[in-house]
Design a protein that fits this description.
- There is one protein chain.
- With 386 residues, the protein is an alpha/beta fold.
- The strands form 2 sheets. Strands 3-2-1-4-5-6-7 form a 7-stranded parallel beta sheet, with helices on both faces.
- Strand 1, helix 1 and strand 2 form a beta-alpha-beta unit.
- The structure holds uridine-diphosphate-N-acetylglucosamine.
- The site of uridine-diphosphate-N-acetylglucosamine has 18 residues, from helix 1, helix 5 and helix 11.
Length: 386
């Protein structure tokens, strides 16, 4: 019997854990007598209904067995509280494996705690590197990979990163991108949604007119501290959105809670709400985001997951970052994303250029919707004494 505790903490973790749990259920149905015992821990980093609960119900994730209730705070507070609470869980549950996904604070805190309890750790989405140590997620990725026993990588670039850091090749398994399992599973139901309904169900303030044409809009998301935490950076981006982007297209922008706080603090909210071509939404569901992505003329984002989804769906994507841990999504590598940083001259040029680029879907090898089963298989194989 193998006992696994898997961990989620923040929104981008949920679409990665949903297919993994379903793959365990399939494994158990096919392997009577050799079932995997699984428990799900939510650290509670994201707690709003729209940032957490909605994803559990939408993606069919079972209720977490344990919620650590960590909540918001500084990085040290979040990581520290998570480690203290997760250690208690590990001492009581004594799992064989802890499985962590992605690069959020839960990923770091729980992988380190597992290792200190001498419990094997598996990292799904290992090997991503932006090379940017000012990014909290980069620190989380490096530390998590360093302590993990099994590193499940989404692409060959990530495998190469780990090898060049000296990771033993026997610990690395290419499994593909687990988020694409969730995309494949939800795409047909997402396509049935209506943009008008998404706007009506999520709007901050109802726009004067709802868009008739379901494709002529830009889909925007922004939440990285490097873009939103300082008025000198966020101000010019908002100027670009109101003065250039919204003059050409409708803008649909589900706003992250961090960004709502900063827009209000810097006095930028009124500029956006007074522009009739800009539709600000509350955080949308996974399927709603998929529908917005597949329908948009262009996506502007600083989200890693959206860069990947744009690549698979073919949507031209302007990434408001100077680097990416997901180079496979860049146009020069076959993807649809271009790095524009936060320089608004570059963003403007790329925005105008992207409007004439046709959709061009691209599926890197093993991004085939079957990644979660490969993850479970790898854990089972590594659990069997050689
Ligand atoms: C976190 C992740 C980031 C991920 C992002 C996705 C880390 C280091 N960062 O950043 O990698 O891309 O989630 O959303 O783990 N808040 C709420 N309600 C919530 C959650 C947050 O209002 O349910 C507000 C709070 O004011 C909080 C702020 O958003 O202080 C930031 O939340 P936090 O979890 O610290 O970081 P994110 O920016 O969401």
């Amino acid at each position: 019997m193998i006992k696994i505790i898997s961990v989620v903490g923040a929104r981008p973790n949920f679409m990665k854990i949903a297919p993994f749990i379903r793959a365990i259920d399939r494994h158990n149905a096919d392997n009577k007598g050799k079932e995997i015992v699984h428990k799900l821990v939510h650290t509670g980093q994201h707690y709003d209904a729209r940032m957490s609960d909605a994803f559990f119900s939408d993606l069919g994730i079972p209720e977490p067995d344990i919620n650590l209730g960590v909540g918001s705070g500084t990085h040290a507070e979040q990581v520290g509280k998570t480690m203290i609470e997760f250690e208690k869980v590990l001492k009581a549950e004594k799992p064989d494996w802890v499985v962590v996904v992605g690069d959020v604070n839960a990923t770091l805190a729980c992988s380190v705690t597992a290792k200190k309890e001498d419990i094997r750790c598996c990292h799904i989405e290992a090997g991503l590197r932006s090379g940017d140590m000012t990014m909290p997620e980069e620190i989380n990725r490096i530390v998590t990979d360093r302590v993990s026993d099994l590193l499940l990588v989404p692409d060959e670039i990530s495998r190469g990163n780990l090898l060049s850091e000296g990771v033993d090749e026997h610990k690395i398994v290419s499994v593909g991108n687990i988020m694409i399992d969730t995309l494949e599973e939800n795409l047909s139901s997402a396509l049935k949604l209506k943009i008008k309904d998404i706007i009506r169900d999520n709007s901050y303030t109802m726009p004067a007119s709802l868009p008739e044409d379901e494709t002529a809009f830009a889909f925007i998301t922004l939440h990285r501290p490097s873009n939103v935490d300082r008025p000198e950076t966020l101000g010019p981006i908002v100027d670009f959105i109101t003065e250039t982007a919204a003059r050409r297209l409708k803008i649909i922008w589900p706003v992250h809670p961090r960004t709502v706080g900063k827009l209000s603090e810097f006095g930028l909210m009124d500029m956006l709400t007074s522009e009739r071509n800009i539709i600000l939404l509350k955080p949308v569901s996974y399927r709603e985001a998929l529908k917005l992505n597949v329908s948009a003329s262009v996506v502007l984002t600083d989200s890693g997951g959206l860069q990947e989804e744009c690549t698979v769906l073919g949507t031209p994507c302007i990434t408001l970052r100077f680097n990416t841990e997901r180079p496979v999504t860049l146009r020069e590598n076959g993807g649809t994303s271009v790095l524009a940083g936060n320089n608004t001259d570059i963003i403007r040029n790329e925005f105008i250029r992207s409007l004439s680029i046709p959709r061009k879907p691209f599926l890197p090898p093993l991004w085939d919707g079957q990644t979660a089963s490969r993850c479970v298989k790898a854990i089972v194989e590594y659990s069997t004494p050689q």
